[in-house]
Amino acid sequence: MKEEESQIKADTPQATAVSDYRASLKSMDTEEGIDLAFYRPIGYAWACLAKKLGVTPNVITIASIFLGIGAGVAFYYSNLWINVVGMLLLIWANSFDSADGQLARMTKQYSRLGRILDGLSGDIWFATIYVAICLRENATSDFFMAHPWVIWVVAVVTGLCHAKQAAMADYYRQFHLYFLKGEQGSELDNSSDLKERLAELSWKHDFWKKLTLTFYTNYTVNQESNTRAMQQLRAELRLRFPSGIIPQSFRDAFRRKSLPLMKYTNILSFNWRTIALFTSLFLQMPWLYFAFELTVLNFLLIMMVVRHERFCRTFTRELKDGKY
């Protein structure tokens, strides 16, 4: 009788909605607390609406780009209320950034173009924000008005660090998902495979595909160049398990080591950046955001890479010793 009641509860519309919502998430391992409490529920609502209207994930991503640009423009002004409008636009943009991925998982509309656009959207938001901060500081700060080049140099260095932080955070999340959910549940790529695909495309007949794949291949090459131990582990796994079927014992062991680092990948992503950005805007000192990225986030990046490389070396030795 209890089993029948449990089955009835499981078949209710509410239970189905909860199940569908959870299926729209990447994984509980890689989700961040603020996302789960705020952005994912809102993103799911947008995704459901888009699904009914026949809107594709890429269209949502493109819309988020315009919202993010609008936010950046609003941050140029010293008026706090205009800044608040910009904050709301940036929150809206990120809810769309959440929605496009959730919609893709709901409708199985995965594409490499979508992944590229998704990464590019955040870069465009923050490029606009960086330019706005530079122009604002040069117009309002006595120091930067006297030395206008300083803030631009700081912005360029910060932007390069931002790109590295975001790329590595994304890479480690995808590697974690690979062991948690398998190849189908991860967007982990290999530069060798991408280069082979790139060679098959023609600039004359496949210009846009080749262009986007060229950028994505270079992006992946840069990720791999900063993770030598991880690449050695991937090579050893291919050697030991050419079929791609990795023992569950190894997957579980890797997940235990990788899971504590997921909190750092989340800090290096969107939410904590925007908390720092909004705080600097409320303080009327937007340059503080650059200082946060250059110090706190770079420290976390280095710590994350060192720890990840260390246990990758350990797993490679264990594979060679025949432990798995």
Describe this structure in words.
By secondary structure, this protein is an all-alpha fold. The chain has helices at residues 2-10, 13-23, 33-53, 57-74, 80-107, 112-140, 142-146, 148-181, 191-200, 207-225, 228-240, 248-258, 262-267, 271-282, 287-320. Mean pLDDT is 89; it is low at 1-8.
Shape: globular
Give the proportion of residues in helices: over 70%
What characterizes the major β-sheet? none
Unreliable sequence segments: 1-8
The radius of gyration computed from the alpha-carbon positions, rounded to a whole number of angstroms, is: 22 Å
* Global structural class: mainly alpha
Number of helices: 15
**End-to-end Cα distance:** 44 Å
Number of strands: 0
Order of SSEs: HHHHHHHHHHHHHHH
Strand residue percentage: under 5%
Give the structure's gist in a few sentences:
The chain is 80% helix and 0% strand.
Write the layout of secondary structure elements.
Elements: H1 2-10, H2 13-23, H3 33-53, H4 57-74, H5 80-107, H6 112-140, H7 142-146, H8 148-181, H9 191-200, H10 207-225, H11 228-240, H12 248-258, H13 262-267, H14 271-282, H15 287-320
Helix pairs in contact: 3-5, 4-5, 4-6, 6-8, 8-12, 8-15, 9-10, 11-15, 14-15
Characteristic key phrases:
single chain, 324 residues, mainly alpha, 80% helix, globular
